[in-house]
Amino acid sequence: MLLGMGFSFFKICSCWLAILCLLIASWLYSEHLFKDRLQAQHQRFSLGLDFEEFDYIVVGSGSAGSVLANRLSYSREELLLNNQSSSTVLLLEAGKSDNTPLAHFSFLYAFTFWSSLDWQYFTLDSESKINEGHILRKMYWPRGKILGGCSSTNAMIYMRGSPQDYDSWNECEWDGKSKIWNFENVLKYFKKSQRQMGDAQQFSNEYHGREGEWIVKSHNENEIVSVIKPIVKAFSKILSIPIIDDFNNPHHTHQETDAPYNEVHLGAVGNTQVNIYNGKRFSVVDAFLTEQVLRRENLFVRTQAHVTRILFNGTRAIGVEYFDERMKKYIVKKARKEVILSGGSINTPQLLMLSGIGDENQLKMHNISVIYNNPNVGRHLQDHVATYIPFYLTTSFESLISSILSNPFIEIFNLLFQKKGKLTTNGVELNTLLKTKKCEHDRVLRYSPSKWDLVHQKCYDNHHCDSHDIQIHGTPTVAYESGNFALHQHGYTFIPLLLQPKSRGTVSLKSSNPFDYPIIDSNFLGHEHDQNTLAEAVRLCLLVSEELRREKVILEPTIKVKKLIQNLNSSNSEEEKRHHLIRYALDNVDLIYHPTGTCRMSNSSEQGVVDERLRVFGVQNLRIVDASVMPSIVRGNTQAPVVMIAEIASDLILADNER
């Protein structure tokens, strides 16, 4: 495709040669360019300077764990200001440190997939075990196995979701009485960690923090390829929605349109906000595990430490057992105050079940002694289910690959020395939030209840259409599915996804061996509502693509999209068109890597795994702080909400243990 555009074979080879040289140089000089920030920590363990017992043990160093390690280990001087004493903290991470170019150069994040930095999970590819008759597509599900977890491997997008997400948690789980989980309170914690770049007129101080550790910025003009601008304009024109800068300001994202013949109830389009600084990823490790923090005498960080079980004395958590990859042996560490699980929505429920907390029938099947019977462990799995709609572009506009091909060595020079250019982007510059015409209160309530519905499902359904129901990302390359980018092709891909899916899956044990991966029954698109809504999202993307073809931005669709368009054009009824759209969604369903809900918060163990203060039901001194505690998935990327949850949890933990 690129050869036909006038890009010579020599130019294509020179581009990949330049990138290859960058990677080789990065690895050869990684000791200097990406110094292992944990060298002093490694030495403490090798010299036996760690403790047998800590106040807190945090399992997992991802978006929650790194925040917790920072906040719970405030130095004595910092804590004296609050009349508190410093606590000893052990942070355990199964993966290695983040001293690799793949975790730092923002444009390389897709290369972390299928690597040693990734757990490399897969969903079932058979009939769903919880939804008879629903045939599942096997899907690759990467999770960060590295210091920083997914914050070191993801697309770096900063979104919080809608205010309605947090207010519905409050109403549906705690009858509106929670002082913790409501938008007014969580906003303070979003702002606490955030250091928003840009002026206050563009990013209001009402919704953004300026003094936190975690840098958030928008893509600059010189980072965005030229095709993004006409695509943003096409979305705005065809769907009658505003172009905005700030996707974390509800005044901007919730503007209703009164334009005639509008296709949606409300929406907004614009460029994404990201955690990138000086041309490189700014992970939670960069923000919360700085050199100064890692020098704290009371903080210990151990990588390549795979936690295999939680230790109990009766129903009281007293420590953990982990396998130390360096020492090649199992090690036990005790916790005086609490064990805190921050492994994410797949690892956390697996560890709970391996330790005796879960559905007693499943535990007994694997000869695991039951500490507490709670069938909710591993249930209620949600993700922002998506599909990919790739097109080829005309030569008048840049894609990611064509912009790099034009001057590969200059782009690498700009990245390394000017800290700017196309290689400093995440490749996902466009963002769209929409509330579709399918999202109407009466329509949602008409869907048949499912056996995996929540007890409070009607409450959540009542709030289902309070805000957006779909999001559309886009990437200036040809992407056939998640992680499968045709980087040699000149194109653009629409990525529509569900923000409020009704389908829920499960995570269950394959065996009692902690090194066996769990069984993930996604059940995604198993609900009629989800099929109809994603089909509508595909239709809207095709509508925008027609405008882009008229404007000579898009050249033609890829083969699978062309077949869909042909089927739609030959259809004799709206019902037949809907069938083709749903079939496309089912055949091409994919994940956005935002798993949530498998240890959800609720007011009792009948509906959840943790209480309002994130304490695990039925046991003592054990909490969960990660995306698995979300009662219902938020309407947006999940990394920022997880950091917020960790900020709240830190205050809860310190308050409860200072009583």
Overview of the molecule:
This protein is an alpha/beta fold. Helices cover 31% and strands 19% of the residues. The model has no long low-confidence stretch (mean pLDDT 91).
Number of strands: 27
Content of β-strand: 15-25%
Tell me the number of helical segments per DSSP (H or I, 4 or more residues long).
21
Inertia-based shape: globular
Sheet/helix structural class: alpha/beta
Query: What is the radius of gyration computed over CA atoms, rounded to a whole number of angstroms?
Result: 24 Å
What structural keywords apply?
659 residues, alpha/beta, 7-stranded mixed β-sheet, 27 strands, globular, Glucose-methanol-choline oxidoreductase N-terminal domain-containing protein, flavoprotein
Sequence-ordered SSE layout with sheet pairings:
Blueprint: H1 9-28, H2 30-33, H3 39-46, E1 53-59, H4 65-72, H5 76-80, E2 89-92, E3 121-122, E4 140-141, H6 163-174, H7 183-193, E5 194-196, E6 214-218, H8 228-239, E7 243-244, H9 250-253, E8 264-271, E9 273-274, E10 276-277, E11 280-281, H10 284-288, H11 291-294, E12 299-302, E13 305-313, E14 316-324, E15 329-341, H12 344-354, E16 357-358, H13 360-365, E17 372-373, E18 389-393, H14 400-406, H15 408-418, E19 430-436, H16 441-446, H17 457-462, E20 470-475, E21 478-481, E22 484-486, E23 491-498, E24 506-508, E25 519-521, H18 528-550, E26 554-557, H19 559-569, H20 574-587, E27 622-624, H21 639-657
Parallel strand pairs: 1-2, 1-15, 2-12, 5-6, 7-8, 15-27, 16-17
Antiparallel strand pairs: 3-4, 6-9, 8-19, 10-11, 13-14, 14-15, 18-23, 18-26, 19-20, 20-23, 21-22, 24-25
Helix pairs in contact: 4-21, 7-21, 8-18, 18-20, 19-20
